[in-house]
Automatic annotation (TrEMBL), chains A, B:
Protein name in UniProt: Redox-sensing transcriptional repressor Rex
UniProt DNA-binding region: 29-68
The encoding gene: rex
Assigned keywords, A-Z: Cytoplasm, DNA-binding, NAD, Repressor, Transcription, Transcription regulation
InterPro entries according to UniProt: CoA-bd, NAD(P)-bd_dom_sf, Rex_actinobacterial-type, Rex_DNA-bd_C_dom, Tscrpt_rep_Rex, WH-like_DNA-bd_sf, WH_DNA-bd_sf
Top-level taxonomy: Bacteria, Bacillati, Actinomycetota, Actinomycetes, Propionibacteriales
Protein purpose: Modulates transcription in response to changes in cellular NADH/NAD(+) redox state.
Keyword Nucleotide-binding recorded: no
Amino acid sequence: MTRASSRRPGPPTRTERGIPEATVARLPVYLRALTALSDSGIATASSEDLATAAGVNSAKLRKDLSYLGSYGTRGVGYDVEYLRYQIAREIGVTQDWAVVIVGIGNLGHALANYSGFGTRGFRIVALLDADPALVGERIGDMEVRDFAELEHIVETDRVSIGVITTPAGPAQEVCDRLVAAGVTSILNFAPVVLSVPDGVDIRKVDLSIELQILAYHEQRKSGEVALPQVPELPATNGLAPDLPAVGGGVSA
Amino acid sequence: MTRASSRRPGPPTRTERGIPEATVARLPVYLRALTALSDSGIATASSEDLATAAGVNSAKLRKDLSYLGSYGTRGVGYDVEYLRYQIAREIGVTQDWAVVIVGIGNLGHALANYSGFGTRGFRIVALLDADPALVGERIGDMEVRDFAELEHIVETDRVSIGVITTPAGPAQEVCDRLVAAGVTSILNFAPVVLSVPDGVDIRKVDLSIELQILAYHEQRKSGEVALPQVPELPATNGLAPDLPAVGGGVSA
DNA sequence: CCGATTTTGTTCTCACGTTCACAAGCTCCT
DNA sequence: AGGAGCTTGTGAACGTGAGAACAAAATCGG
Ligand SMILES: NC(=O)c1ccc[n+]([C@@H]2O[C@H](COP(=O)([O-])OP(=O)(O)OC[C@H]3O[C@@H](n4cnc5c(N)ncnc54)[C@H](O)[C@@H]3O)[C@@H](O)[C@H]2O)c1
Ligand SMILES: NC(=O)c1ccc[n+]([C@@H]2O[C@H](COP(=O)([O-])OP(=O)(O)OC[C@H]3O[C@@H](n4cnc5c(N)ncnc54)[C@H](O)[C@@H]3O)[C@@H](O)[C@H]2O)c1
């Protein structure tokens, strides 16, 4: 099977060319914490200070940073500006990435109005929508353009990141168009599972899911160990035979 | 959280009263997939079908579902309606949870206008803002109310979930007020690390972080193994001595 | 120049999460 | 009725991540 892939028997994945995904997800948090410290005029910070600012354990922070290299000074700590630059470089936000937003409804408007992206390594180069009534509307210093211009814009501005804020229905179709146009990273707000070819990264932001996760824990808090729990399994079976009459009998 | 852990030394965490966090985070995805199947008039689905719809591996899906109980039928699959109800019950969205949104700016407006929460187990009971100019504004069938009414509303409507969409500055203060008022679950959109007492759950949605994670992978794609990489470590040290002259000498 | 002190970088161990693989169990066909 | 064919539920192997602990390096005071 996958035995042929055993290159290094002893050393466990040296730094080589890969930072653990869990670490990658925390680097932006450290970056933000460092920026805050820098803005406060703090020049040096220990792993303990940084960990507190980032809301993590200091051992974890040190291990995370160690994947980037040895940027601290023992007995002293980390130079805030220097480390900030190193992390920004590692993430790739030392220069701006061009971004298009597709679907300028409620959420698209909010994103278009948000000023926080420009200061964090991203530049919104186009707001696209398929609705002719929206095309031409000005939002800040930008104008909503027709979704048909996608391919042209992606090529001209070398866009590699796309944000989908359309309804769930057209999301896959929009996604396919983005990929075909050359976009290789997608941030999806629509509540659907998008499928993309290899080589394209996709991340989703789903507010309903976040709330439902909170609800799960909330339920546990109130009921603690109580919970009606319902007849977990009726001794024999009784699964398919008797539907629990929740949403009414489904046709089909 | 890590309190009552050492109860059973031998058996590996029987179903008891705890579903792995990673599984909890996927249950809402399964719930949505089941709802979609149900809407399509499909009465039964195999783990393979479900896994495809949810965008996960079928073995993972089966293991996840096994934490809830034995709700499938071997050789057949899962009854869509039945399983949907069981998951909804486990998550706790068989009845609605009351939610307040604090900070009715760009993002707050978008959330207030969103109709998707009501159908997924949540009921927005109040839109709160500290800005007198906003108070009284109507959004859909709701009216923006003064943040000062928070305590009253939380008590009256038994609110347990709060959403923070204020700027980063006042977020911790708003968070403290929410907690003091009795809210025990918080969804935070402000780009800050909030600290809350034990017993309060907090989740964050951070768009800049999502984009930066995409940027990291994007950078890897283009440069592959290239990347200027910069003098990773100057042979000796050279860390603290020579600041990289990025932000100039800070007064610390 | 040396030892005390501080803090990093790393190693080790344990816990958690994912995937494979297959016996157990169900339905349907002959 | 009995076997063939599916599909679930789960034990076991494997991989990743978290945290404790500590040796290695750097500063500072004497
Ligand atoms: N608004 C929220 O707070 C919120 C919360 C959670 C999730 N979401 C999700 O985010 C997405 C957007 O939500 P919204 O409230 O902004 O919806 P919306 O209906 O206000 O906006 C959707 C926009 O997409 C455009 N659009 C539709 N089809 C298109 C296509 N094929 N190509 C280009 N543009 C197209 C529409 O013209 C519209 O302007 C939805 O999937 C929604 O489920 C929104
Ligand atoms: N808009 C976006 O697309 C977007 C994207 C990413 C992150 N965010 C974050 O989400 C948050 C909200 O963004 P926004 O664009 O809606 O900001 P915004 O400035 O439009 O709205 C903030 C609202 O909060 C209210 N507010 C301020 N202090 C308050 C207090 N103490 N109590 C109650 N209300 C208070 C303000 O009156 C205002 O209405 C910010 O933290 C922002 O960084 C927004």
